[in-house]
Amino acid sequence: MSTTLQQQPTSLSLTHGQLSRRVPVAIAVGSVVAALALVLPVAGYNPALIGLAGLVLFTGTTYAASRRVEGRRRAVDRTVTTLVTSAFVLAVIPLVSVIWTVVTLGAERFDAAFFTETMRNVVGEGGGGLHAITGTLVITALAGVISVPVGIMVAIYLVEYGSGRLARSITLFVDVMTGIPSIVAGLFAAGLFAQLGGPGTKNGLAGAVALSVLMVPIVVRASEEMLRLVPNELREAAYGLGVPKWRTITKVVLPTSIAGILTGVTLSVARVIGETAPLLIAVGATDSLNLNPFSDRMQTLPIFAYYSYQQPGFGAGIQASYDRSWTASLVLMLVVMILFALARVLTNVLKPKGLR
Amino acid sequence: MSTESPTAVSTPRISEAAIRNAPNPSLAAQAAQTARTERPTDHHNRIDVEDLDIYYGDFKAVEGVTMTIDPRSVTALIGPSGCGKSTFLRSLNRMHEVIAGARVDGVVKLNGENLYAPGVDPVLVRRRVGMVFQRPNPFPTMSIYENVIAGLRLNGRKIPKADADAMVERSLRGANLWAEVEDRLDRPASGLSGGQQQRLCIARAISMEPDVLLMDEPCSALDPISTLAIEDLIGELKKTYTIVIVTHNMQQASRVSDRTGFFNIAGTGRPGRLVEMDETSVIFSNPAEQATSDYVTGRFG
User: Fold this and answer.
1) What tens digit of pLDDT does each residue of B156-207 get?
2) Which residues of A, range 254-293, sit inside 8 Å of B by Cβ?
3) Is the pTM value of this prediction over 0.80?
4) Pairwise CB contact (< 8 Å): A239 & B3
5) Using the beta-carbon criterion (under 8 Å), do B137 and A231 form an inter-chain contact?
6) Closest CA–CA distance from residue A153 to any residue of chain B (Å)
7) What are the chain A neighbours of B191 within 8 Å (beta carbons)?
């Protein structure tokens, strides 16, 4: 292991010894080599163990070297920097791995047929996810139509009108709703529609209601934060011009905060678009295209992915089914990414000019 | 709250119907201008406050204020922080009601009409009594042009483009801002300097043709040059409007105002009171009360 340490005389001056920039690089290389030498004979090629051993060696050696040359404070600084950076890398590895896996495996069936065909009368290879894509879009859009106005209006009530016990209890319920398990929301919607349309009623609207139960609290919390960020001076400016309160809210407060509210709405959509359990109960699954959310079962991307993996059929059809499952996941991920991109663009367009 | 129905208004002078029934706002404005010159000055736009107490919940913030504010003059309110002068100013157009739990006891009369009479809509009061705030607060989502006509647009009134253009120009000229912004009316208002923003807010307030203009420390966030511009503007505006200004700057009070009221507070948690009110020259040279003398000469506060 190379140790090109630059010794400098310690004195009462403002300068102190510094490790050359090359030293950490050298220590890193040395640590990896040492880790390989240590792990390979014992455990074979085990990347996780090699990484861990290398990290421990690197941290320890850097600390020792820095302590000797630069003093204790810089040594601790280097150690903590190493740990924080490692934590970041550790957090990103699964993310990158997921994206990589979904993209490579999903690319197999990422073709025109997947976007134009359904699974109706398809056994084995072929078919597509058109029915699932449209189903996801229709149900999520319906959920948005239900929960975005409700959520924004609740937030407006809490920020602009609410005070006292009612506002406090609404806040409490919204907090509780944030933690509702999605399966409970699904059971609620299934129970509700069993009352309305008889037991076993499954349709897109029931799924949208289930998703709304999950969406509303997110929209409320996000919009509430954004509305509270609007300076009171702007409200007073409007009141001072003799503008009634409701016009102040619709013409001043909402336009000022709309960019942030949109971001919150997008987050809530991203949160529910991949929900599986509630849709399984409330909407069911189908192989056919159904664009009418008010009657009969619909297919959605998460459930399509689930069944394609769970019940792949037999023979050569098994691999084809797995491929469709991955492609469904890839499409779902792309839909979320497109939504985020749209929200970004809208946010930039609608953001109050001159505000940062 | 419904402001669409003029029936809620018991008092004929504060009536949206009168504004709405006018053929167009600029004509209404002309009519108002004519009215201003024809009416006897001692009665028009005069504010009488009688024994006003202001509360925030159980806390009495201001106690027993009685004063008369002359039309087309500048009245300055001075006093130490927390003495209730801003609260009092806000009670003149019912802006203090924005804070939950705020209420008043007493009478504030604008041209003989009690602003706190039952049935008076605070929204309509504020259309007659405009306000300029401590920090410039142009609407960030709007351009300079839109900010000036915000009073009309936000109230949902549509007027022909030519009238709107004329109103914007008149208001900006009235606020001494026209020359600086005429070539960039469509730019965001937040791009202006602090002093320009404050004059924009004044233009926005006077575009509504109010009778009274309240100013709550309008220069405290501005540099001396912008302050001078605003003070000159106040001198111009008082030819048309009744102006009440709260200020911490005693030089400013002595420069711009005709009459000055001194508010003081006996101690923390006690209500503020109007100690003395007189001609500005008297307040600053020969006040009747020792407390006033101490304050204006800088011996305390």
Assistant:
1) 888 899 999 999 999 998 888 999 999 999 999 888 998 899 999 999 998 9
2) 255-256
3) no
4) no
5) yes
6) 16
7) 353-354
Q: Which residues pair with B60 in a beta bridge?
A: B55
What's the CA gap between B243 and B253, in Å, rounded?
12
Under the banding of pLDDT at 50, 70 and 90, the label for residue B20 is very low
What pLDDT sits at residue A124?
82
How many residues does the structure list for chain A?
356
